[in-house]
């Protein structure tokens, strides 16, 4: 919420600030376009969309992101490797799936899940939750020093 209020204040003062950089990983082009449209319309910078596991890993290796929205099934391929890479980099992510938790990689069944179909509000609330985790993690790191 603090991040959102800072964004609103900056925009009212004429500054052009992003609410965060979100990696979108989705193999269905129309779904990816909808996610991108919703997120950019709400003030987020969208990285990607990446349509494949290799594409997502390449993007992740070459740019900084604050959070990720990951389709749990990329053309029938597991996303374990991507979820592990995001975890190693401490980037919060949510799986997007119509199959429930059973459709998630076993080691990531407790991860944030956005069920399909979802509304615009649910997508934005999920991304806000992920970014709040980023802020809390950064604050905890500063307090430990």
Index terms:
single chain, 145 residues, alpha/beta, Rossmann fold, five-stranded parallel beta sheet, 5 helices, 47% helix, globular, disordered N terminus
Shape assignment = globular
Backbone structural class: alpha/beta
The structural domain count equals: 1
Uncertain stretches: 1-16
Give the neighbour order of strands across the main sheet.
2-1-3-4-5
What do we call the CATH homologous superfamily?
A: Response regulator
- Give the helix level as a range of percent: 40-55%
What is the class in the CATH system? Alpha Beta
Kindly report how far apart the N and C termini lie. 25 Å
Explained architecture:
- With 145 residues, this protein is α/β, with parallel strands linked by helices.
- The chain has a single domain, classed as 3-Layer(aba) Sandwich (Rossmann fold), CATH 3.40.50.
- Helix content is 47%, strand content 17%.
- The protein contains five helices and five strands.
- It has helices at residues 2-12, 29-41, 53-62, 80-88, 120-144, and strands at residues 21-25, 45-50, 67-71, 93-97, 112-115.
- It has a five-stranded parallel β-sheet, sandwiched between helices.
- α4 links the parallel β3 and β4 (93-97).
- α3 (53-62) packs parallel to α4 (80-88).
- The protein is globular, with a radius of gyration of 15 Å.
- The model is unreliable at 1-16 (pLDDT under 50).
